[in-house]
Amino acid sequence: MKRGWLRILMLMLIVFSVTSLSAKNFIDMYMEGGMFMHLISTLLVVVIIIAVLKYWQLSIKEKIDSKGFYLKLKGYIKNGQTDEAARICAQFKNTTMGFIFWNGLMGYNDAKKSGKESFDLKKALQNSFDEAGLQTIPKIEAGLFWLDIIAQIATLLGLLGTIFGLVAAFDALANAPESEKQKLLTEGISMAMGTTAYGLMVAIPTMLIKGGLQARADRIINNIDEYSVKVINQITYSIKE
Predict the structure, then answer these.
(1) What is the tens place of the pLDDT at every residue in 173-196?
(2) Above 60 in pLDDT, residue 23?
(3) pTM (2 decimals)?
(4) Residues 14 and 205 sit within 8 Å (Cβ to Cβ)
C-alpha cells in the first residue's frame, strides 16, 4: 500500500514539473540539449513500445479468472473426469495458466493410460506441471528488466549531458570572445540543467511503469503457483496407493 501511494506521489510530481514548463521553454530546453536529448527521446520511445506490449500481454492475453477456472476444473477432477478437464484447459491454452494446466492434465492422462500407478503416476503428474511451468512462466516477466536498464541509461545520459554542458560553459568563460561569452555560457548551463531534467523525466516514469507491470506479473505467477498446487493435490487425492 505504501509503495502504491509513493508511486502516485512521484507521478504527481512529474506531471506538475512537466506542466509547469511552457511548450516554448520545453522546446528551447530540448534544442539546447543537443544529441543527448535525442538519445533520451529514443529511449522513451523504446519504453513506450515495451510498456504497451507487456501491458497487452499481462492485462489482456493473460486475463483469466484463476479462482473460477480452478473451481470449474475441480468438479471434473473430483469425479475422475480428467479428460474433460483437459479439454476445458485446451480452450485457455493461449494463457500461461491454461497451458500449464492443459499440459499437466494431458501428461497425467497419458501416464495413466500407459499403466503407471501410485508413485509413478504422481511423479508423472508433477513433472508434467513442472515442465510446462519452466517452459512458459519465464515469458511472463520477459523483457521487464529492460525497463530498469533504460531508466538507468536515461539518468546517466542526462548526467553526461550535464558534464558536457558544464565543460562548454567553462570553455566559454575561458576562451570565448566577450561579445559571445554570455550567450555561450547560458547555452552551456541550459544544456547541463536541461539534459539532467529530461533524463529524470524519462527515468522516473519508466521505473513506475516497471513497478506496475512487475506487480501484475507477480500476481499472475502467484496465482499459477497457488492453483497448480491445488490441482495437483486434488488429483493426488484420487490416486490409490
Answers:
(1) 667 666 666 666 666 777 778 888
(2) no
(3) 0.81
(4) yes
Instruction: Please check whether residue 185 is in contact with residue 173, taking contact to mean a CB–CB distance below 8 angstroms.
Output: yes
The CA-atom distances, in angstroms, between 5 and each of 1, 8, 10, 59, 208 are 6, 5, 9, 21, 11
Look up residue 160 and give its three cell numbers: 553526461
Question: Would you state the pLDDT for residue 203?
Answer: 92
Q: What angle do CA 207, 149, 139 make, to 5 degrees?
A: 85
Nearest-angstrom CA–CA distance, 118 and 142:
37
What secondary structure, in 3-state letters, does 67-98 show? HHHHHHHHHHHHCCCHHHHHHHHHCCCCCHHH
Residue identified by cell 506542466 is 19
Grid coordinates representing 119? 508413485
DSSP 21: S
Rounded Cα distance between 236 and 241, Å, is 10
Lowest mean pLDDT among 37-46, 180-189, 197-206: 180-189
Residue with C-alpha cell 548551463?
189
> Counting every residue, how long is the chain?
241
Q: Where exactly are the structural domains of the chain?
A: 1-241
Residue entry with cell 471434473: 76
All 3 cell numbers of residue 70? Answer: 480452478
Q: Residue 60 carries which DSSP code?
A: I
